[in-house]
UniProtKB/TrEMBL annotation:
Transmembrane region(s): 30-52, 73-95, 101-132, 144-166, 172-191, 203-226
Top-level taxon of the source organism: Eukaryota
Name by which UniProt lists this protein: TLC domain-containing protein
Alphabetically ordered keywords of this record: Membrane, Transmembrane, Transmembrane helix
Length: 227
């Protein structure tokens, strides 16, 4: 009886997974709830960084970088990573919302990179996280927050390149990851269709979106290449 019950529970579990395969993505309510928690944790981390005057990433890892108010931000990074990875794995995100699949993939790389490089956590680095969580806190999304979010990405890139004391190699790593995300965000803003649902009639729009996104990101690419 016990074995049969265990088997039944396992069967139900896998049926639920199979059912979730029919979804284009997780219910937005999941994101609303989690982002309300994440925004609090991000603010805690940000206020602590302000207290210790850590406004830019640092090449050295100090004791302050290991403080509980900073390390608790890892929970945000881990839950983001697990949630995005699970959504990719157990839904048809790649089929129905390919743009979101690309976004999730880039974001997962950023989260994992941050977990293993705690010294980059600072006030400026946390700003995009804060705005992103703010955008997803409410059932009604405000587009102007997305514009601010993308501007904040560029701001972070600019500050890291020009004012942080990171090594050239580390600056390149941080900047290129953030820049790829910015680049893709700009592209999908102008080309507001999923890439896997391409139509010939939208070819001009696709080309225009590619050009505009490259123009927005090119100055930073050139800076990275020639400095």
């Amino acid at each position: 009886m016990i074995l049969h019950k265990i088997y039944s529970e396992i069967e139900i579990f896998f049926r639920r997974i199979q059912m979730s395969k029919d979804l284009a993505g997780f219910n937005p309510e999941i994101y609303f709830l989690l982002n309300r928690l994440w925004i609090i944790q991000t603010l805690i981390c940000m206020f602590y960084c302000m207290k210790i005057k850590k406004y830019l990433p640092s090449i050295t890892i100090t004791n302050n970088s290991k403080h509980i108010f900073i390390s608790q931000f890892n929970f945000v990074l881990l839950t983001y990573t697990v949630l995005y990875f699970t959504e990719i794995l157990y839904t048809h995100l790649i089929i129905f919302r390919f743009n979101s699949f690309i976004h999730h993939t880039i974001a997962i790389i950023i989260f994992i990179f941050t977990i293993f490089n705690q010294n980059i956590i600072c006030v400026s680095y946390l700003i995009p996280y804060l705005i992103h969580s703010l955008y997803w806190c409410f059932q009604v999304q405000y587009d102007y927050l997305l514009y601010i979010y993308n501007i904040s990405l560029i701001l972070v890139i600019f500050l890291i390149i020009c004012f942080s004391n990171l090594t050239k190699k580390f600056k390149f790593q941080v900047t290129i990851i953030a820049l790829v995300l910015f680049h893709f965000n700009v592209f999908t803003h102008f080309y507001d269709n999923d890439l896997n649902h391409f139509e010939k009639e939208k070819l001009f729009k696709l080309i225009k979106s590619l050009i505009l996104s490259f123009l927005a990101a090119t100055p930073f690419y050139f800076y990275l290449i020639y400095n």
